[in-house]
Amino acid sequence: MLKTSLATLVNHCDQILRTKEFGDYDGAVNGLQTENSGNVTRIAATVDASLATVKLAIAAKADLLIVHHGLFWSPSHPWTGKRYELLQLLIENNLAVYSSHLPLDAHPKLGNNTLLCAALGLRNLKPFFPSHGRDIGLQSRQKISRDELTKRLHRATGSKPLLIPGGQETCERIGVVTGGAGGDMKLAAEAGVDTFITGEGPHWTYALAEELGLNVFYAGHYATETFGVKALAAALSKKFKLPWTFLDHPTGL
């Protein structure tokens, strides 16, 4: 059985993702979140670190779990009840967890935004949408009808997006920010896009999109963020000759 040291894998991830150069939300805690005994033989990837996905990783016999949303988004103490069960499972099953949030959103090759744009056939991409001191999204100047973009999003993510038809039928300047950026759609409009693709947003953003004259596609927070963890795990698998698997645990959100 082939194996690679956990430290080697973590250092490689930190370097290619430029983890230390990114600001992020406090709960993101990018990088290695839990250690194992020191070696990796099988990699699993999933969007969210949770009790359910940790159990799936253990069933898959993984000793490294790559995630986009890590263990500490919600209050992580005290370690009682289900939190204790989660900690116990990680330790007893020798499962390390590596998390990458904004670094994986913004990566030019492995990133959620880059890969979603590729799946949508968007070209002439330029960075936009600043977050924590860095542009994390992409925009494209390209004429596509709203109906066609709906179909492409459905194919790319596997679920039909919600459209707020606040703008013109033909989309000409399209911005993409995976995840939960709907609450910041005004920032997207100020950047000059007429169409904004993200994962989800609050109820009040429907009226705001109409007021801004902005087409908004909510394609699912989970659905728009499966791309990066898959790409990172596949890249690690190729480089270090380790098997990997994607653990699909959709939230429907």
Please tell me about this protein's structure:
Helix content is 34%, strand content 26%. The chain is α/β, with parallel strands linked by helices. It folds into two domains: 4-100 and 226-245, NIF3 (NGG1p interacting factor 3)-like (Udp-n-acetylmuramoylalanyl-d-glutamate--2,6- Diaminopimelate Ligase, Chain: A, domain 1), CATH 3.40.1390.30; 106-224, Udp-n-acetylmuramoylalanyl-d-glutamate--2,6- Diaminopimelate Ligase, Chain: A, domain 1 (3-Layer(aba) Sandwich), CATH 3.40.1390.30. The strands form three sheets. It has a six-stranded mixed beta sheet with strand order 7-8-10-11-12-9, with helices on both faces. Helix 2 packs parallel to helix 3 (81-92). The protein is elongated and about 55 Å long. The model has no long low-confidence stretch (mean pLDDT 97).
